Amino acid sequence: MKRRPLPLLIVGLVMALILAQCAPAPTPAAQPPAAAPSPTAAPSPTAAPAKKFVIYHVPKAVGIDYFKSAHQGMEEAAKEFGDVELHYEGSINASAEEQIKVLEDIITKKPDALIVSANDPQALVPVLKRAREAGITVVTYDADVLPEARIFFINQATFEGIGKALIDEAANQVGPEAKIAIISTFPTAPNQSRWVEEMQKYMSQAYPKMQLVDIRYGEDDQAKSRQQATDLIAAHPEVQFLIVPTSVGCPGVADALEAAGKVGQIKMTCLATPNGMRAYVKRGTLEAFYLWNVVDLGYLAMYVTHGLLTGEIKPTDKTVKAGRLGEREVGPDNVILLGPPFRFDKNNIDQFNF
């Protein structure tokens, strides 16, 4: 075997080492970039609260059960909508002058709408016109103003229907030749003056021998109504039947009959709430009285007002939808009718709580 010379082997090893030192360093395998640290999430801005419609309910006077019941209906509807801020504000006395001051103050607060039961159909027109000019939606209920001062009037029943019901009640209890008297509120009260007018008109047509011996005014005050009834009974001992078209005056007149010992001798009917007259009906001071569902009246007023604010109801609409009440027609002068008057007596009065 032939051997390689040793010097050549050494030279080869040295050259290999030199070449290895000169070779470039191997490129390391590419690594995926490190994930960037997640930035701390910025807190989301607080969502702006949903707009609420600011609506003021302005009754003829505060502290009266009738208007409290209407407000209950408005609250019910407002809860269904969820976007209403409802206020209840009025004067202590049923006075047009005081109501105007209340409205003037409310207008400065720039609400979205007013729901008003008017103490006078004409006196409130200027202030309600100013409200409309300021962009405030105006709806009346229970007692109206001239149509140019509001958009809709929510009427509890027709004036003719109420006048007929009260006179028919007198005829049914006392007879078609009854001697009757009326104890109302104010001579200028919009509802009462029309009801009295319709009573007289219907009486002359249906019961020509029925006599209206007197009309007195208790100024929407229970104590004054009682005094007027006491004076009337003394002045007209022949009177057989009293009609009181006011929920405030009705208990006062009933008190006067009881105090005079005339229960059964002089009969009466009125427009009143079940809660206000329940005890008198059960004692037999009066057999029956009339009204409408006041809670439903307030509910309907709120539905119409809210619909105007959202645009779902237009001033020119001929029908309106009102939640659980269904659909209601719009009559001349934009009057929306709740329904016919309802007779309350001992057989049904405990079914109602307003």
TrEMBL record:
Top-level taxon:
Bacteria
**A Pfam family matched in the record:** Peripla_BP_4
A GO MF annotation of the entry reads:
carbohydrate binding
| Gene Ontology annotations for the cellular component aspect, listed alphabetically | ATP-binding cassette (ABC) transporter complex; outer membrane-bounded periplasmic space
Report the locations given in the UniProt record.
Cell envelope
Q: Which InterPro entries match?
A: Bact_Solute-Bind_Prot2 (IPR050555), LsrB (IPR030159), Peripla_BP_I (IPR028082), SBP_2_dom (IPR025997)
Tell me the first and last residues of the signal peptide: 1-25
Keyword list (alphabetical) reads: Periplasm, Signal
Predominant location: other
Query: Periplasmic binding protein domain spans which residues?
Result: 55-312
Q: What does this protein do?
A: Part of the ABC transporter complex LsrABCD involved in autoinducer 2 (AI-2) import. Binds AI-2 and delivers it to the LsrC and LsrD permeases.
The UniProt subunit note reads as follows: The complex is composed of two ATP-binding proteins (LsrA), two transmembrane proteins (LsrC and LsrD) and a solute-binding protein (LsrB).
- Which PANTHER family would you find in this protein's record? ABC-TYPE SUGAR TRANSPORT SYSTEM PERIPLASMIC COMPONENT-LIKE PROTEIN (PTHR30036:SF8), D-XYLOSE-BINDING PERIPLASMIC PROTEIN (PTHR30036)
What is the protein's given name? Autoinducer 2-binding protein LsrB
